[in-house]
Amino acid sequence: MSAAGPQRVRRLNMQQGFTHTIDGKGEGSAASFEVINPATGVAFALCPDATHEQLDRAVAAARRAFVAWRKLPLQQRCDALRAFGAAVRTRVDEIAVLLTREQGKPLQRAKEEVLRALVNLDGILATRLETEVVRDDARGRAELQHHPLGVIGAITPWNVPVLLAMPKIAQALVTGNAIVLKPSPYTPLTTLLLGEIAREHFPPGVVNILAGGNAFGGWMTEHPGIDKISFTGSVATGKRVMASAAATLKRVTLELGGNDAAIVLDDVDVKAIAPKLFWASFGNSGQICQAIKRLYVHDAVYDELCAALVAIAGTVKVGEGFEDGVLIGPVQNRMQYERVLELLADTKRQPGVRILCGGDALPRPGYFIAPTIVADIAEGTRLVDEEPFGPVLPVIRFHDVDDAIRRANDSRFGLAGSVWSADEARAKAAAEQLEVGTAWVNHHLGVEPDLPFGGFKESGIGREYGADGLRHYSEIRVVSRPIIPARPAVGQGAKA
What we know:
alpha/beta, Aldehyde Dehydrogenase, Chain A, domain 1, Aldehyde Dehydrogenase, Chain A, domain 2, six-stranded mixed sheet, 16 helices, 20 strands, globular
């Protein structure tokens, strides 16, 4: 990427060139808020701050647009989404530069996020919700049909804003709904840019994207004109979303946090799996809901694996996303940065715990924390029991596989997990005992658009992706009709 990319984005931001998308048009707001570059800790842009009145108009526009959009043939809805995706693809480099600036991730990782969002869009468009015949016998014929809900309210987080906005748009629209989407106030700009592109490809009101603070999310969950909330974010906020949505009995899909465990058995090839485990833990600076947050390692390979992970950490360059060779960027915002440092301070106070590498903030501007690996720690500590959502990995020793599974399951979280072994059948048998929405065997991370994704326990309600995900953007309607006996012909017992 040439220097022209970042400079162009900077000039646009200083001119306050970003707008909400409401009823097919760009629109600013009287108020604005600063967007911080986490690599510097300094504001680089002003983002328009939407009002309640603007939300009302966006919802009203979506309700009007829904009437015609739901009647379009599925193929036409898919064609519009494909054209939208093609337009996004032509601007991948521009979006990636902006994403690095507001989110902090390395530029190449930002580009990969946008491209992955497009792969997920294609996968969603290839998924079908078919009418199901559940009865066709002497009692009559009954079908299950999938009816769009109306207006979807989508709320996305700051860790992978493009990757999570795109599937919410796609799933809502392909099932015949209209959408009002709010990005995180920490990373609003790339999503507003998606809205700008969407204006050219959908009828007015079908896609509405507005930026605002935390109060804006509450307005959405309370709004009587929104039929469903699709929320991705923290458990605490998810509970507030659910409570607020209850007043109008909104449908909700909640994809929430995870304190995901990986269990490494005693027969693994440490050199082969160590890089996979490291990046499943530290990718995106550990800011992935399904990243490894707890690494349970059998005593037989514990010391060797710890040493291998520390060696990898020593080769990884941490820095600003536009610097050459950077693989890990900053924590995205000051609040999360201070939380991770607080967890590290608590960890250092625990008796017997060893900080094998990292453990501190880096002495530079921005929200940088060195990749940190913690050994000889166990349950009952905050680092193990809570979700750090940062570049910190506790490595926990175990002797018995059944005990490791029990300890991994002893959590209020249940998003995902993995088991690693040279014996795939052995790993699979253990993975099937994990109380999680996704259990991986000999790998970790990755949401695939044809597979449903979501969590057990406090890690969420409902599913995104796959046919099951599309069902959560629809209502089931039963169409039932009895078998009507044929009337006998005249002359065969019937009266003329």
